[in-house]
Amino acid sequence: MPVPTIEWKDEHVRIIDQTLLPAEKLFVSIDTAEAMWEAIKLLRVRGAPAIGIAAAFGIYLGIRDFAGEDRLAFDRRLNEVCEYIGSSRPTAVNLFWAIDRIQALLKRYEDRPVQEMKKLILEEAREMVEEDNRVCRKIGEHGVGLVGEGCSVLTHCNAGGLATARYGTALAPIFRAHELGRKVHVWVDETRPLLQGARITAFELVDTGIPATLITDSMAAWVMSQKKVDIVIVGADRIACNGDTANKIGTLGVAVAAKNFDVPFYVAAPVSTIDRKLPSGEGIPIEERDPEEIKHGFGRKTAPDAVAAYNPAFDVTPAAYIHGIITERGILRAPYKKSIGTLYDTI
Ligand code: MRU
C-alpha cells in the first residue's frame, strides 16, 4: 500500500489527515495526547485497527513528559491518560483492546523505573503497527479464496489500508487477489454521511489500480438484485461472541439485501475486534455523532436548520446474516459462539 496510515517518525507520531482525502494528502504530526484524542474524535485517523494503534501512541504521548521517578505517580498518570483516550470514540473495541494492552505492561514490569517504562510503552505501540501489518496480510491470505478471477465484490465504508496500519481488512483479500494477477472489480458504497467509501476506499482502489465503481448507499440493493455482485465483504468495529457485528451505519441494510438476493456476506476483521466480554450484539455501544454531519456535510447546507436529524455512526448486523468472519486465524463459520470460543481455547 502506498500510504502508511500512522507511524512513528523522527520522534513524532505522523498520520495522514483522512478528513482531507481525496483532495489533499496532508501528513500531520501529533505530539500530545490531546491532539491524538481530537484526531480520533474528528476521524483524522479512523477505522477500528488504526484507532487502536492511535490510542497506544496517544497514551505514550500523554506520559512522555512525565517528570521524576515516582513509579506510583507514573502509573496513576498513565491510567488517567488511558481513560481520557478511551473517551474519544465508544464503538471500535480495538481502542479498548489497545488500552488494555498498554495497561498490562504496568503489571508485567512493575519493578521497572519510569524512564524504562516510557521506552517499553513506545516499543509496544510500534510493535502494534508491525503486528497489524502481519495480521492484515494473513486476513488477505485467508480471504483470497473467496475472490476468484472475474469476481465483483461490494464493500461498505473503508476497511482498507487507511483503516489499519497499511493493508486493510475487508480490502485485504481484494488486494491479495490483485497481487496474484486476478481481474477483480469492486462496488464501493459511498457511505453517508462522512463518505468514507467515496473519499477513502475509492481513493485506495484507484491508487492500487483495481477497477472500482462508486454507488450511493441506496443503490446497493438494486445492484445486487441485478446479479452484479458476487460477494459482499465489510470490516467490523466490534464483534460479539455470538458473531453479531457492529460496523459503519448502513452495513445492516447491505446485509439484509445480500440475504434477500443470495449474495454471500462476509466480515473481515482481526481477532482483536472480537469483544470477549460481550455475549451478543445488544451490548455494543453505538456512537452517536453530531447531526450537523447529515445536515451540513462538507461545507454545504443540505437540510433546514430546524429539522431534527439522528446520526448513529454504526449499526449491528445479526450473526444470522454473516456467511463467515475472515480473521488472521482463518475463516470463522456459524455457530460463531463455538468457532469464536475455539479461537480462545487455542490461544
Ligand atoms: O467511523 P469510521 O470511519 O471509523 O468507521 C470505520 C468502519 O466502520 C470500518 O468498516 C471498520 O472500522 C473496520 S476498519 C478495518
What would you say this structure looks like, in words?
The chain is an alpha/beta fold and 347 residues long. It folds into 2 domains: 6-137, Four Helix Bundle (Hemerythrin (Met), subunit A), CATH 1.20.120; 140-341, 3-Layer(aba) Sandwich (Rossmann fold). 40% of the residues lie in helices and 15% in strands. The protein has 11 helices and 13 strands. The protein has helices at residues 33-41, 48-63, 71-86, 93-108, 114-143, 172-179, 196-208, 220-225, 251-260, 292-295, 336-345; strands at residues 6-9, 12-16, 27-30, 152-155, 185-189, 212-215, 231-234, 238-239, 245-248, 265-268, 314-317, 324-327, 330-332. It has a 7-stranded mixed sheet with strand order 6-5-4-7-10-12-13. Strands 1-2-3 form a 3-stranded antiparallel sheet, with helices on one face. The two termini are 30 Å apart. The mean pLDDT is 97. It binds 5-S-methyl-1-O-phosphono-5-thio-D-ribulose.
Feature tags:
347 residues; alpha/beta; Four Helix Bundle (Hemerythrin (Met), subunit A); Rossmann fold; 2 domains; three-stranded antiparallel β-sheet; 11 helices; 40% helix; 15% strand; globular; binds 5-S-methyl-1-O-phosphono-5-thio-D-ribulose
Find the CATH superfamily of the largest domain: Translation initiation factor eif-2b, domain 2
> Low-confidence stretches at least 5 residues in length (pLDDT < 50)?
none
Counting H and I runs of at least 4 residues, what is the number of helices?
11
Mean of residue pLDDT? Answer: 97
Reported for the largest beta sheet, the result is:
7 strands, mixed
Classified by CATH, the class of the largest domain is Alpha Beta
Number of spatially distinct domains: 2
- Determine the N-to-C terminus distance: 30 Å
Query: Strand sequence of the main sheet, in spatial order?
Result: 6-5-4-7-10-12-13
Principal-axes geometry comes out as globular
Tell me the CATH architecture of the largest domain: 3-Layer(aba) Sandwich
The helix/strand order is EEEHHHHHEHEHEHEEEHEHEEEH
CATH topology of the largest domain: Rossmann fold
* Helical content band: 25-40%
Based on DSSP secondary structure assignment, what is the total number of beta strands? 13
Rg, alpha carbons: 20 Å
Q: Strand content of the residues, in percent?
A: 5-15%
